[in-house]
Write a structure and sequence with these properties.
With about 80 residues, the chain is an alpha+beta fold. Helix content is about 15%, strand content about 15%. The protein contains two helices and five strands; from the N terminus they run H-E-E-H-E-E-E. The strands form two sheets. A three-stranded antiparallel sheet has the order 2-1-5. Strands 3-4 form a two-stranded antiparallel sheet. The chain is globular, with a radius of gyration of 15 Å. About 10% of the residues are buried. The model has no long low-confidence stretch (mean pLDDT about 85). The structure holds zinc ion (ZN) (2 copies). One zinc ion binds near residues 15, 18, 20, 35 and 38. InterPro entries: E3_ubiq-ligase_TRIM/RNF (IPR051051), Znf_RING (IPR001841), Znf_RING/FYVE/PHD (IPR013083), Znf_RING_CS (IPR017907). This is RING-type domain-containing protein. GO terms for molecular function: zinc ion binding. Keywords: Metal-binding, Zinc, Zinc-finger.
Length: about 80
């Protein structure tokens, strides 16, 4: 039985580079999210002397930001 398995939540988190659902999502300092693989590949093509920029908002970062996994923090609100 084949059924489309894309939830509304998932479809909101597509990677602007590969246009797939985010795989290993990481946030960069501007707040945009990409696949770890995609943003690494994107920045690997950047000249070492230029800044690393967000493909979406063009915010530039230097040095290359450390990518951290996008983890959802446990809800602490009352
Ligand atoms: Zn991607
Ligand atoms: Zn951005």
């Amino acid at each position: 039985m084949a059924q489309a398995n894309i939830s509304v939540t998932e479809s909101q988190f597509r990677c602007p580079i590969c246009l797939e659902v985010l795989n290993d999502p990481v946030s960069i300092p501007c707040g945009h999210t990409y696949c770890m693989r995609c943003i690494n590949k994107y920045w690997d093509q950047v000249d070492a002397t230029s800044q690393f920029s967000c493909p979406q908002c063009r915010d530039a970062f230097s040095p290359r930001p450390v990518l951290r996994r996008n983890t959802v923090p446990p809800e602490q609100h009352c």
